[in-house]
Amino acid sequence: MGLKEAFKNWLDYRGRHIHGGIAYLFHRLTGLIILLYLYVHFGALSQLLNGGESYKNFLATVESPPFVALDILLFFVIFYHGANGIRLVFNEFGIGTKKNKLFFWVMMALGLIGWLLLTYLVATKFIGGG
Amino acid sequence: MAYNQSLKETMEPIAWLFQLITALFMVFFLGVHLVLMHAYGLSNILIQAILSRLQDPWWKAFYIAFVVSITYHGLNGLRGIILDLGIKKVKAINALFWIVAIITIAYGIWLLFNI
Amino acid sequence: MDKVIFRIKRGNTEKWEYRDYEVPIEKGTTILDGLYYIRDNIDHTLSFRASCRMEVCGSCAMMVNNFPRTTCSTQIANVKSDGTKNGLKVIKLEPLSGYPWIRDLVVDFDDFFKKHESIKPYIIRKETPEGQLLQSPEQLAKYKQLTLCIKCGACVAACPISNSDPLYLGPAALAAAYRFNADNRDEGKNKRLAIVSDPEGCWRCHFSAECSEACPKDVDPASAIQKLKVQAAVFEFKRIFTGRKDGEK
After folding, report:
1. Which ipTM score applies to this complex?
2. Measured between alpha carbons, how far is C117 from C212 in angstroms, rounded to an integer?
3. What value does the mean pLDDT take over residues C131-159?
4. A130 vs chain B: nearest CA distance in angstroms?
5. C-beta of residue C10 within 8 angstroms of C-beta of residue C43
6. Enclosing H/E stretch for B53
7. B88 touches chain C (CB under 8 A)
8. Which H or E run includes C18?
9. Of C74, C103, C124, C131, which is closest to residue C12 (Cα–Cα)?
10. What percent of chain C has pLDDT over 90?
11. Cβ pair C104, C168 in contact under 8 A
12. Does CATH number 1.20.1300.10 belong to domain B7-114?
């Protein structure tokens, strides 16, 4: 099987269940996004090395609404990966494998609550001023 | 057939266990990090705040453990995806994983000590 | 008379197309009934596998609307429509995904059986036993569900890893390995773990659990593989610390 066909099949969501193959696919995709962000983050932190003016500009960008919106999107990705991941840690030790659908949706609900909480904390801080 | 090949490949179960362990560590690390960085407006990301935090040995330890965990977890996940796609050069992929992981961790820790 | 449309993938890898067939149905008509109708009355060149008609031989699995099902036990009324044509429900039938395609709805199962054979699917004893090997109902209950596997191959067709990595042992073989490891009469657990703990063995599984959704006999291979992973991890760590080559005492 060639790499192109393998990749196409890996992404093929048809026939998969939300708590099964779709959850798996999103777990992989969110993981890749977060890994990419890690390197972006290290790059941004390198800015601190220059200090002073460039960092003040950086702070201004961080406060801007489009940036905050992207941040909130990132939190969504992280909370999905984390919530699904906690379920997977239990599953890979053999716990809860018989109740997969229920476990998945419970973790999704918890993840959603966590994300909404964080978004609320962020929004109130920025609406009220940093 | 590549399955049932030499069983010296004991990296897999160790890698699996650490993927799960770092996952649990990260729920804690990221939980603290996200709230600290984003729920207090700008007060925790001002230069002074960052520099003073990095003086504290406990915070340094936290960040080092965080960097090691997340780099390992992310790159091992990527290694898993590559192997899932049926790429057979397992030894080469493992070697590449170690090289990238060590470079990333080294850079992250260097950043911690030089900001 | 009610009718449905079977949209069937005909041909082989060199030349193929989807062809529509109108099939009359009544209460309880299965997809296999429909396939026999087409072959007997419309197009006798249609190739498909079937035998027992009662979900015990494992011959008739194929993709029904993108999901692997055993056609003898799948009632047409229970299958959702994959679009409509002339007001009639359309059901799409394709060969099992992830297997080499021979023709029409027939795929090559050689690799599937080789992988199953490779995990030593038989009781292994250190010495020939004298008399009966005893097993209590509680001991049987530990693995009985796994014995119901009919080797239909639906689990492998559903698995995202099997579909992108042809060398992966697959849920059927791995669940079979656990079936024997969990059997109290067996003494070959370490031999099997040495085979299964491989980059292309149980470590390629990430619990997407589609295999357990697809299995017509509720074998739940997904749970078995996670338990197998724990067994394999313990085995490997023991091997690292004791340095034994095959983990045997």
Report:
1. 0.89
2. 21
3. 95
4. 4
5. no
6. helix B47-55
7. yes
8. strand C16-25
9. C103
10. 86
11. no
12. yes
Tokens of C54: 């009662």
d(CA B101, CA B79): 11
> B50 and chain A: CB distance < 8 Å anywhere?
yes
* Beta bridge pairs of residue C67: C64
Does residue B4 have a pLDDT over 50?
Answer: no
pLDDT of residue B10: 62
* CA gap B28, B31 in Å, rounded: 5
Interchain pair C223, A15: CB under 8 A = no
- What does the domain layout of chain A look like in residue ranges? 3-127
Average pLDDT, chain C: 93
Neighbours of B91 (CB within 10 A): 11
E strand or H helix at A81, and its extent?
Answer: helix A65-92
Token pair of B41 as six digits: 């407006």
Which residue type does C38 have? I
Contacts of B97 by beta carbon, 8 Å cutoff, 6+ apart: B75, B76, B78, B79
d(CA C151, CA C170): 12
Q: Ramachandran region of residue C214, left (φ > 0), alpha (ψ -120 to 50) or beta?
A: alpha
Q: Output the six-digit token pair for A55.
A: 């960092």
Q: How far is CA B108 from the centre of its chain?
A: 10
**C31 pLDDT more than 70:** yes
For A3-127, CATH gives 1.20.1300.10
Strand partners, C75: C30
pLDDT higher than 90, residue B98: yes
List the domain boundaries for chain B.
Answer: 7-114
Q: Which of C113, C203, C237, C245 to mutate to test the interface with B (most CBs of B within 10 A)?
A: C203
- Predicted confidence at residue B112, as pLDDT, reads 87
Residues of A in contact with C210 (CB under 8 A): 16-17, 20-21
